[in-house]
Amino acid sequence: MTLRFDKLGVVIAVIVAYAAFFASFATFRANRIVPGQARPILEALPPTLGMLLLTIVIVCGIVALLKTPLILRLAASVAALVALTILIGVAGGFLTPAGNTFARIAPASGFWLLIFAFTLLLADVLTRLNLSPWSRVGVLVLAALAIAALLVSGSWDSLSILKEYASRADSFWAEASKHVTLALGSLAGAMIVGIPLGILCHRVEKLRAAVLNVLNIIQTIPSIALFGLLIAPLGWVSVHVPGAAAIGVRGIGTAPAFVALFLYSLLPVVANTVVGLAGVPRAANDAARGMGMTDRQRLFDVEFPLAFPVILTGIRIVLVQNIGLATIAALIGGGGFGVFVFQGVGQTAMDLVLLGALPTVALAFAAAIILDAVIEMTATMRRVGTA
Amino acid sequence: MIEIEGITKRYDETTVVDNVSMVIEPRTIATIVGTSGSGKTTLLRMINRLVEPTSGVIKLDGADNRSLPGYQLRRSIGYAIQGHGLFPHRTVAQNIATVPLLLGWDRDRIKARVDELMTLYQLDPQAYGPRYPHELSGGQQQRVGVARALAAEPNVLLMDEPFGALDPIIRTKAQEDLLAIQKRFGTTIILVTHDMEEAVHLGDKIAVMDAGKLVQYAKPAEILARPASGFVETLVGASERPFRLLSLGHVRDAVEPGGAEGEAIPGDATQRDALAELLWSGRPALPVKGADGRLIGRVTVEGLVKRAARPQ
């Protein structure tokens, strides 16, 4: 029997070998801001569990390395990820001296590399399985439920990032809702303004270049500069327009963050609307007119449904971009997960930075998966056909 | 009846259609033929006002076509184009139902009409109705395109190179289908083509256009026999002329008394087919059978050759 290697598996195996034997699994710190001491797997866990984890990781690494059946690769990646996520919590409890509330245990580079390697394996398996859109959303929900279960069960409570969370539980959810409101609200605004603007640009050719150029220029302004540029006009509006201050329009805070995100969102929405409408087959458009559809009927019955998947792609770009960009809003008092990131940077407390960064990444990731599934469904609906 | 009176279309300085007048009799097929850029498509699109003329009047059954809003006018006129223009996001049945739906027909009436047309076009409504256009072959798509144009029972059907994208075998079938359907519904058809063969085969009358002007408007035999200009003669194709002339006549009109050896040719085949068969088989005569299968006489090479000569 000849052994054959999987191309991606080689990369995964190299990462796994390095992370398991040379990198540290967890970091121990006497308090939240001092530099930490690295602990490899065998020192971070009780001996039997340490050996168990090493064995699981190595076996799963070998499964990844060789050309193995997809179902085995799927089992290996899930087993490794489950073992890692449960045992990092165990390491937290094991390394914390009894009764010590200042000590902080954080996952270290080895842990993150192992998570990365096996997530890569899982993603590769899921891609090769060619899952339907609904199944992909299903996998996402399962993963979310598993993480939620770990959080609720308290098995991660001894980890540093959850200790940061514990001392900020109230403000965490307030900032989370602000973050989501900012990202979704600016997206909604961009859709309400951008889609009609895109339709207008499609119909009036002279307008197209001008509008798209202006939006392109806005897109190139750095976000901090845009916040700065907005302070003066919004401050003026707040003072001079009756009622503006009452609904929260100010030079700093949520208003400029919202306006900036909205402006950044316009280009993808408008551009994709224009491209989508331009992609409608000429013959279909001509036939629609020739059969006596009014301009309105043609727009809503023919052009818009055909352009919809492309417009949705623009909305996906905007949503993922906005979830990330909303982090910056904290700089001007706009709130959101960025609050923890910037506080953490200020206090050199990396755990606090992670408390802001990890939910942001998770949200963006989930939004991308869900919208990709929706895009595929709208595009296949006309092929498979339910009507 | 369609009366086109002094129609002109100018874009800035360019005259695309130049003072064209012609009358299309009801229940006939008029083909408009010309090179690309001759203005034939523009002329067609002015009839249902997809293009508004610069000057002139078009009357449908005596009424000016500007007496209704454009979109309402177009709902009463069938429209089929090259590449079919089916809506890719709608099923075959939904595509055919487009105009009846715009006109507000009730569900039962729409369904009955869609089923009728699909059956007429040899597409099983159960099997093909729920499919999407991209799941059909090119010939089927084209048939659905014409069925859609006929859905609201229009008196007039405009066709812009409807068979241009089809391969020769399917095109011949589509042309026969169109003739059969025209006979059945008595629709007045105006068909634009650049293919003289198609124009001669389908048209009760042929309009030849060149550089925006109507050069000749006459019956096919007249066009072949007495081309109005050098351009028409070129379009007809000097080497093809006698054969096109023969293709206009049926074998039963060329029957001579007497008998001949071999398999009989049906009386409703074209004289061109008969001559081809005679030449290819090397025989001097073919027996001819009528619609009921009985022999009614024979055709001879000599007789057909005489008919292929320029009419005096």
UniProtKB/TrEMBL annotation, chain A:
- Transport is among the record's keywords: yes
Tell me where it resides. Answer: Cell membrane
Q: How does it sit in the membrane?
A: Multi-pass membrane protein
InterPro entries referenced in this protein's UniProt entry, alphabetically: ABC_transp_perm/SBD (IPR051204), MetI-like (IPR000515), MetI-like_sf (IPR035906)
Q: Does the keyword Transmembrane helix apply?
A: yes
Q: Example GO biological process term?
A: glycine betaine transport
Q: What is the name attached to this protein's record? A: ABC transporter permease
Source organism per entry reads Mesorhizobium hawassense
TrEMBL record, chain B:
Read off the InterPro entries from this record. AAA+_ATPase, ABC_transporter-like_ATP-bd, ABC_transporter-like_CS, CBS_dom_sf, P-loop_NTPase
Residue ranges of the ABC transporter domain? 2-236
Q: Key word ATP-binding present in the record?
A: yes
* UniProt-listed Pfam families: ABC_tran (PF00005)
Q: Name one GO biological process term.
A: quaternary ammonium group transport
Keyword field: ATP-binding, Nucleotide-binding, Transport
Q: Name one GO molecular function term.
A: ATP binding
Q: Does the keyword ATP-binding apply?
A: yes
Q: Which family does it belong to?
A: Belongs to the ABC transporter superfamily.
Q: Which PANTHER family match?
A: OSMOPROTECTANT IMPORT ATP-BINDING PROTEIN OSMV
Supply the name of the protein: ABC transporter ATP-binding protein
Which species? Answer: Mesorhizobium hawassense
Q: What does the record give as the organism's lineage?
A: Bacteria, Pseudomonadati, Pseudomonadota, Alphaproteobacteria, Hyphomicrobiales
